[in-house]
What does this fold into?
Amino acid sequence: MNLRVSLLLALVLLLSHVRLFAAEDPDLVLQGAKLYPSPTAQSIDNAVVLIHNGRIASVGTRGQVPKSARVIDCTGKVIVAGFWNSHVHFENGWHDVPHQPAENIVAHLQEMLTRWGFTTVWDLGSVPEDTLALRKRIEAGEIPGPQILMAGDIFPEHGHPVYLPAEMKLPEASSPQEAQTMAQQYMKLGLDGIKLFTGAFMGDKPVVNMDTTIVRAAVDVAHAQGKPVFAHPQNRVGMDNALAGGVDVLAHTIPSEAAFSFTVEEVARMKQQHTGLIPTLTLWTTVVSDPVVADKLVQSGVEELKQYFSDGGAILFGTDVGFQPKYNTTEEFAFMGRALPWRDVLASLTTNPSTFFKQPEKGRVAVGMKADLVVLDADPSVDVRNLAKVAYTIKEGKIIFSATGNPQ
It folds into this structure.
């Protein structure tokens, strides 16, 4: 083989390699569904959504579609924007992620998150190395899964909650300086926020609350980098200290309090500071064995949710799944439906977190937005629990869950 032929073959191989990497996924068309472009927009019947290169290219009614596109008939179904779960944990079963077979991780993600429509999640406390490894495999395209945002935990001194293993070493801050250092380390690690246990449940012993000066030290570090801070309050003191310290999100309601409601002053401060509230109502059915007590806690949480929502507060959907074992979201939607209209439950899953966490390219079904979508088998306007009946979960134009078992 002479030099000219060798060079020609090399050029052919190089061009083939370039074409391979330049190739885009085929367009995806969702056709025939009822579409809710946003929680406040009027629905579109017989809709057609065209997805190109991970973005929504067009939204309309039936018409011509590209011949090369993959078309999914969604007749009788409903399309909404992709869901956020703003309170999850990658705890049990997420160890040694770099060495777990991809199929095992995909199955676990589907069982826990993607089959319920979640395209974006906040991990509010797990072993950072495990979740970072999981996020890396998802971002590399090796595993279909949601976008994972991560918060690093800080506990009060001597505030090791009774429900966490005694041998587990927790980051406890005894001073503002220690909290500042811990928060800085989390930021250097590449985490997206901080979670403060402003109240630690100690069983029969009194709750250990975090001092406001410690809260403020961690908040200042996070806010300096534009990162949010979540708080886990266990009682009114822990909640008030969190608000006084400037946290952005309350990760739970506090239905165990005797008053079972926020004070007028608390609501006013929450609204002034634009504090988000994550109800996690199903949680109370999993941590209390007495169903009567559990029902009382749930209803108290519903009343707190209704109170803050009625005053115009920001509501964010979250289930504490991964800590609590109920993956199915049907019950959470039913509980939230006692306090909110269905469109506002949808907002807690879509537009509210997208706005709150400054990801404006998500949360709505509109031209130019990231193609994070959920296709439902039934209409949530008929029954809010239908938000749990997911046929397809789509993240940036790729199907990451299909109820038929045939993802893209």
The CA atoms of residues 392 and 402 lie 5 Å apart. The longest strand covers residues 147-156.
